[in-house]
Amino acid sequence: MEPLHEEKLKKLEEKANEIRQAIIRMLVEAGSGHSAGSLGMADILAAFYFHILNHRPSEPHWPERDRLVLSNGHICPALYAVLAFAGYFPLEELGTLRKINSRLQGHPHRGSLPGIETTSGPLGCGLSQAIGMALAARLDRKKYRIYCLMSDGEQQEGNIWEAVMFAAKYRLSNLTAVIDRNNIQIDGFTENVMPLEPLREKYEAFNWQVIEIDGHNMRELVDAVNEAVAIFEKPTVIIAHTIPGKGVDFMENKFEWHGKPPNKEEAKKALEELRTLGRRIKSEHQ
Amino acid sequence: MINPNLKLNPKLFDADIEQKPTRDGYGEGLLIAGEENPNVVVLCADLIESTRCEAFAKKFPERFFECGIAEQNMATIAAGLGISGKIPFISSYAVFSPGRNWEQIRTTIAYNDSNVKIAGHHSGISVGPDGATHQATEDIVLMRSMPNMKVIVPCDAIEAKKATVAAAKIWGPVYLRFNREKTPVLTTEETSFIPGKAEIFYQSRKPQVAIIGCGPILFNALLAAQELEKEKIGVVVVNCHTIKPLDEKTIVELAKKYRAIVTVEEHQVYGGLGSAVSEVLAQKQPVPIEFVGIKNVFGESGSPAQLLEKYGIGISHIKMAVKKALKRKR
């Protein structure tokens, strides 16, 4: 991976801001979908697709590509926007999210759209699919890496912990997981619905390397991924502390925004806020 | 008489016919598939010996993955392997896989169109003493109802071996169903096995009813056929090992010719082979059908023979169903 220079960092932050605006436009057009998590993951996804991943948008099935598995499929508006900006498919197609005959399914479907590595939505299944890919890479002596993005809520699924045990047993150091620790899920705050803490210690007890970061600080993410790459004999999980709804003041940290889209009025307000934020990013880096 | 073209076991009706469980065929098939294709990998959930993964695990240790008692994880890991160029076989008891991990199979294998082969062992009521918790009698319908999934139920160990080898060559998700108990070896190495093709195993001189069956229980259908002949009732017995895609052409032809059908399976009558057959015939060639299978109840502990008799899939039940179908025939 290239070093992350100041100029590139600014570009990534601008990209994430554009992605957030696209997410708002997609959601209001679709009339349903998940706002908070999509906005919260925009920085992480932008950093992966525009800096971390070794991939070729014009050749989605390039065998040597790094794989990014999105386990929490409900935040796919963010993934779709990133993929479109990266050049996997035309930006105009983003307006078809959740509509009949669209390649942009309500939850991602592998095979429908270039760049989608796995079908997801039903939670708790991404990590083990990423493990399958990591095993295949090892069998084939391939150097590509596998990243799995998960939500914090889905850590409540039993399948996750079966996968966590397996990855440690097989010492899958070519696998890095990222947990979007935004503290919310549909029914409320994770610690009220079903407490996850101490999450770090849980993973450590299962023999994983754990790194905690500010999920909106792309430099921290890049450093953490570099650290994960350097660690052998263990899989790594990056617990990324994020703000759900990040960038839109009236959505931030509100679990009510987990599973609903903005209406027209709210979207207008959100886009204004994001444009202001965009101008601030520009000036801050000058 | 036995269909001479299929080169079935010449000792088919002898008392000392060779007995072997279909799961043995799976183990042998895995070895062959593993030798033929380096991309074949096997996963197991703490049942290496009883699902017959041992030989493969020994011969190809780097291609064998022990998942522990975690069938949901096994299915989803296989999904990841299957979309990365591997041909994974996942092995457990059918109640757990595809029972417990059904949604994982649906989302990450079938909808994902991942090249995974699901081996459901200890299926049916003949698992015996373990009781109803371990007797999978709903697995065929669980898998059959899923888009992209194919379903094969071998009738003996040799066919099980062939089905396993064939599954590795069929693109996409396949469900293979195996049994625990030793059962008669009906076929030989020379017997034709073509996935998706039903075969007539037995034909009386003047057949009046067609019996369509799958799995080792087919042997009971063959014994019933012999007894029925003594009572001057002629039948054909068809091995319908592939339930999906179903050999519609053969089944419609049978219905046209004999105008009465009996289906035989070690599965709930709701949703299994009988349902698949009747779905086709209701649309294309409606005829009376009688269903031999488990009738909306759970099993219990007992010996396989006792259970087959108590739960309505013994020889006497097949004979009774044939007579009923005959009565309803127009």
Automatic annotation (TrEMBL), chain A:
A Pfam family assignment: Transketolase_N
Transketolase N-terminal domain location: 15-271
InterPro entries named among the record's database cross-references: THDP-binding (IPR029061), Transketolase_N (IPR005474)
Coiled-coil residues: 2-29
Highest taxon listed in the record's lineage: Bacteria
Keywords carried by this UniProt record: Coiled coil, Thiamine pyrophosphate
Cofactor: thiamine diphosphate
Record family assignment: Belongs to the transketolase family.
Protein name per UniProt: Transketolase
The organism of origin for this protein: Candidatus Jorgensenbacteria bacterium CG11_big_fil_rev_8_21_14_0_20_38_23
Lineage: Bacteria, Candidatus Joergenseniibacteriota
